[in-house]
Specification:
The complex is a heterodimer. By secondary structure, chain A is an alpha+beta fold. Helices cover 48% and strands 17% of the residues of chain A. Chain A has two domains: 2-79, no CATH class; 85-198, no CATH class. In chain A, strands 1, 2, 3, 4 and 5 form a five-stranded antiparallel sheet that branches. In chain A, helix 1 (85-109) packs antiparallel against helix 4 and helix 4 packs antiparallel against helix 5 (162-177). Chain A is elongated, with a radius of gyration of 19 Å. The model of chain A has no long low-confidence stretch (mean pLDDT 95). The mean pLDDT of chain B is 89. Helix content of chain B is 69%, strand content 0%. Chain B is mainly α. The radius of gyration of chain B is 18 Å and the shape is elongated. Classes of the chains: A alpha+beta, B mainly alpha. At the A-B interface, helix 5 of A face helix 2 of B.
Chain lengths: 203, 86
């Protein structure tokens, strides 16, 4: 089975610190769920953003879970060349503007059309950051929704952390939907956006 | 923010669970939530690294490694702290 795996720079596992050697099979220390080789389906990608993205081959029993899969053994095949610093920034910006769009739609529905129009106008991150800084947030739920757009724009301006803007957009969607499942729904939408952007086929 | 997505871990919960994570004692579900949090929260990534470093350093120390005068100073400080003396 072919799947994907995010790693730190130098093909290092983000949680275990294991340094992968492309092509070399890695066997799970113990063939029990939770202790295997972890990987992503396309729909899981946005849950596990990291610096490097690799295609992996999995063998043996594969456990399928909500946001990842896991196998008894696996090996790195090749790096997804399109996932680099530029792609991470594009993904982060996509999520910032997604948070803005979710907030603007919610504000319009709550009767704050003027505020929604102001939020919807900026086309670049500096413009959006300046706009959200210039707005006095409304009270209550409208203020909360505006806050997601503000937090996403300001945080990404300061840190460029794409995984953080992905998280904020996903929470914004859960809030707008009034249902925690909106979080996973937005993550999966982002994952498919990523897969299209990277031309990464379904595992 | 996580009130809207209650299955997501807060930084506070992360700090509470860090020792269990390092000991491999978390349930599969909690470990996944913990690692989801690590993906985006650079503060908690730093905190986890500090905890790992602390455990590595402390794990090498034996009681006999502490010089006698340092041990005395520490014990005095703990006794005063317990009695509420600054």
């Amino acid at each position: 089975m072919i799947a994907y795996k995010f790693l730190r720079v130098g093909a290092v596992g983000p949680f275990t610190g294991h340094r992968w050697s492309p092509g070399t099979w890695v066997d799970a220390a113990d063939v029990h769920e939770g202790l295997g080789v972890h990987a992503c389906r396309v729909s899981d990608l946005a849950f596990w953003i990291g610096e490097e993205l690799w295609r992996v081959e999995l063998q043996g029993h594969v456990w399928e879970r909500a946001t990842q899969i896991e196998a008894a053994r696996g090996r790195l095949l090749d790096r997804v060349a399109g996932w680099d610093g530029k792609a991470r920034t594009e993904f982060g910006l996509h999520c910032v503007f997604q948070a803005r769009d979710i907030a603007a739609a919610a504000l319009r529905g709550l009767g704050f059309a003027d505020l929604a129009d102001r939020l919807a106008l900026p086309g670049t991150l500096p413009e959006l950051a300046a706009t959200v800084r210039s707005i006095e947030p409304p009270d209550g739920f409208a203020g909360e929704m505006f806050g997601y757009a503000r937090d996403a724009a300001i945080a990404f301006s300061m840190t460029g952390n794409a995984a953080e803007s992905s998280f904020i957009a996903s929470v914004a969607n859960a809030a707008a939907r009034g249902d925690p499942s909106g979080f996973g729904e937005e993550k999966r939408r982002q994952s498919h956006w990523l897969a299209e952007r990277l031309a990464a086929p379904e595992a | 923010m996580t009130l809207r997505a209650p299955e997501q871990m807060t930084c506070r919960e992360f700090v509470e669970l860090v020792t269990e994570y390092l000991e491999g004692a978390l349930s599969l579900e909690d470990r996944t939530r913990f690692e989801h949090h690590l993906v985006f929260c650079t503060w908690c990534v730093d905190y986890l690294q500090q905890m790992r470093e602390t455990l590595r350093a402390a794990g090498r120390l034996r009681e006999s490694d502490v010089p006698e005068n340092a041990k005395e100073k520490l014990l005095r400080a703990f006794r005063q702290w317990k009695r509420g003396i600054p």
